[in-house]
């Protein structure tokens, strides 16, 4: 990229940390990926991060938030893990473009990663919860209030565990990293982080391996139901569970094969996201630079 | 409508019958709704029906088919209950515009019925099976191969009954008219049509009433999961089950309240389709006249 193509600032507000970087027009990081714990004054922290990055560029910024952006008002409508952001708009955040975090991750993979050039894509991002996003005929699914693409709240078992959303048996209750750690704790009595369960699985712990396989199977059931609804060319799986893809792939693939309608399955690619933990930052920048349509 | 606004021919190919009528620009039938049993030579029958209606107008025609239209080729890609149609395109059917039947019913309700003017709509049409369609930001969801909107194949119970699609536990296995009759037969040992079960329910048969309530509950679970994905302004319920709405409404509404995320539920309307069994005919004509976007 030449000096005449200013980089875009991408900021990704997570549940516990904030990531940020300068991103060029090709979706590549121009400089290091900052990853710092969230401060008590989140809004002040975001302004500081932006100002520090702005010094080197003076350009457009995008912020991915763990919440919804109401398309009518442009304001943050809900953000369960970041309530300080609710009601804020671009004007309150130094004219930064706002985007939902899972949608940002999908936009990144769609513009610059595993789903580049694909017109119909489902993104499933499984970590603490299960976030999602959908590209329908080349545009991001937004919905009436910016809550479209909440794929983690597909109901898979109406008698299942209570979900943070108020429902029962949502996909994220079965297929998130949190669900994997919970399943393992219930079976073994050992409280472990998802990363620790993954290490145990790779070291030969059968219960740990099964915890990932069970979650992978449920993620595949959800993906299949979503494929039957959207008929996409591709499903992209990202987030922490994708980093343990070796532990979920077989069960995921089996469930997708069983539950996707044959005509939809035949043309369907499953890909792991290529942009890893930088996806939200790259997508926030891409949304600020390009918007959410072609 | 004036004589200078020629009516459009709408034809709706069902599993056992073919419906047809002339439809004006406002979506009103101009003349009677023909409803005849399907003939052995379906293609010949469609040409005859069109020619008979064409004599009075000489205008555009649309055909709703129980199958998918591949957007790349414009040809019918699958039609389990009408295999004679597979591979046909508009040129093979006297230049008639082709549309999936459930999508046609939704387009009719969206242009001329319960969902007129609404930008994000989910249509669930429960009869022999459960058909569906989705309007996303003012356009019909089509998908990569024209199979988008197969809402009846949302997976609700991966261990549930085998579905005609090859999967298990799809929505239509729990919420179709067929499922209602099956549930009643299993509980009572009496083989009845769905219409007979409805009459029994209204006459005080508790098992019959419960058959509708169970199906209504499942339809509500499916509708809630779909609402969480699409964040629509409205869900329109049509088809035979909608004609027994008094028997399903309470259970449907309860399930939607429990399983829809609160922020999505607050702005959500549920409506029964207004166009009844003419919806497919009106939608086929609307698609031929207007296409599937605004």
Q: Give the C-level CATH assignment of the largest domain in chain A.
A: Alpha Beta
Say what oligomer this is: homodimer
Can you tell me the CATH superfamily of the largest domain in chain A? ATPase, nucleotide binding domain
Give the total of beta strands of chain A.
12
Strand order within the widest beta sheet of chain A:
3-2-1-4-7
Q: Most extensive interface, residues per chain?
A: A-B, 53 and 53 residues
How would you classify the helix and strand content of chain A by structural class?
A: alpha/beta
Q: Can you name the CATH architecture of the largest domain in chain A?
A: 2-Layer Sandwich
Number of helices of chain A: 9
- C-alpha Rg of chain A, in Å? 19 Å
Q: What is the N-to-C succession of helices and strands of chain A? A: EEEHEEEEHEEEHHHHEHHEH
- Which of globular, elongated, flat, extended, rod-shaped describes the shape of chain A? globular
Low-pLDDT regions of chain A: none
- Domains of chain A (count): 2
Cα end-to-end separation of chain A: 21 Å
Query: What is the CATH topology descriptor of the largest domain in chain A?
Result: Nucleotidyltransferase, domain 5
Family (chains A, B): Belongs to the ROK (NagC/XylR) family.
Organism (chains A, B): Kribbella albertanoniae
InterPro entries (chains A, B): ATPase_NBD, ROK
Protein name (chains A, B): ROK family protein
């Amino acid at each position: 990229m030449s000096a005449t193509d200013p980089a875009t600032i991408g900021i990704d507000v997570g549940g516990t940390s904030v990531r940020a970087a300068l991103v060029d027009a090709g979706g590549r990081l121009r400089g290091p990926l900052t990853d710092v714990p969230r401060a008590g004054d989140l809004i002040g922290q975001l302004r500081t991060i932006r100002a520090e990055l702005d010094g080197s560029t003076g350009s457009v910024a995008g912020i991915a938030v763990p919440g919804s952006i109401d398309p009518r008002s442009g304001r943050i409508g809900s953000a369960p893990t970041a309530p300080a952001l609710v009601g804020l708009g671009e004007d309150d955040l130094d004219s930064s473009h706002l985007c939902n975090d899972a949608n940002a991750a999908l936009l990144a993979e769609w513009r610059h990663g595993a789903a580049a050039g694909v017109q119909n894509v489902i993104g499933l991002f499984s970590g603490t919860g299960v976030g999602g996003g959908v590209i329908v005929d080349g545009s991001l699914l937004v919905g009436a209030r910016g809550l479209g693409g909440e794929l983690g709240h597909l109901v898979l078992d109406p008698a299942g565990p209570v979900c943070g959303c108020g429902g029962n048996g949502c996909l994220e209750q079965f297929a998130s990293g949190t669900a994997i750690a919970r399943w393992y704790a219930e079976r073994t009595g050992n409280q472990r982080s998802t990363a620790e369960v993954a290490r145990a699985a790779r070291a030969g712990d059968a219960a740990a391996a099964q915890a990932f396989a069970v979650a992978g199977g449920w993620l595949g059931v959800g993906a299949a139901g979503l494929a039957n609804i959207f008929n996409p060319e591709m499903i992209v799986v990202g987030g922490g569970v994708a980093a343990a893809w070796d532990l979920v792939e077989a069960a995921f693939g089996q469930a997708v094969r069983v539950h996707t309608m044959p005509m939809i399955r035949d043309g369907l690619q499953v890909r792991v996201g290529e942009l890893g933990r930088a996806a939200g930052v790259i997508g926030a920048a891409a949304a600020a630079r390009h918007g959410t349509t072609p």
